[in-house]
Design goal:
The protein is of the alpha/beta class. The protein has 2 domains: 30 residues; 109 residues, Glutaredoxin (3-Layer(aba) Sandwich), CATH 3.40.30. It contains 5 helices and 5 strands, in the order αβαβαβαββα. A hairpin with a 2-residue loop joins strand 4 and strand 5.
Length: 141
């Protein structure tokens, strides 16, 4: 009886570890910009020009950040919902440190809503979609 329990426990442990490794590999290669045609990929080089006109929501994220992955579907939904009225972009803070440093980004995910190049709202952490919708609609008025 105890041998069977050891075998079952070992099998479950193996499955648990294998699933964790698979999840780690997926998270390591995570690239949200490829998930929607409505998202801009922002870099230190194109950041200032991209936010200079109109309303732009920018998601400051990193590939290793689990909360960033949690908010990613919301950001994609907002990009699709407000397509043509605002721009939505994502800036990887690991690859583009200058823009994040200039804006004082100290934790991620941080989303900043810009209007004509100036920040008008800042959100840190995972928030519901309605929070962003309200802020965007306020700027569109």
């Amino acid at each position: 009886m105890s041998t069977a329990l050891i075998i079952i426990a070992s099998l479950l442990l193996f499955l648990f570890l294998f699933n964790g490794y698979r999840r780690y590999k997926l998270m390591k290669n995570y690239n949200p910009e490829s998930e929607s045609d409505h998202l801009m990929r922002l870099t230190d080089e194109n950041f200032s020009k991209s936010i200079s006109k109109g309303i732009v929501l920018v998601d400051f994220w990193a590939p290793w950040c689990t909360p960033c992955k949690m908010i990613a579907p919301v950001v994609i939904e907002l990009a699709e919902e407000f397509n043509g009225r605002i721009k939505v972009g994502k800036l990887n803070v690991d690859e583009n440190r200058q823009a994040a440093t200039n804006l004082g980004i100290r934790s991620i995910p941080t989303l900043i809503l810009f209007k004509d190049g100036k920040p008008v709202e800042r959100f840190t952490g995972v928030k519901p979609k309605s929070t962003f919708q309200k802020a965007i609609l306020k700027q569109l008025e």
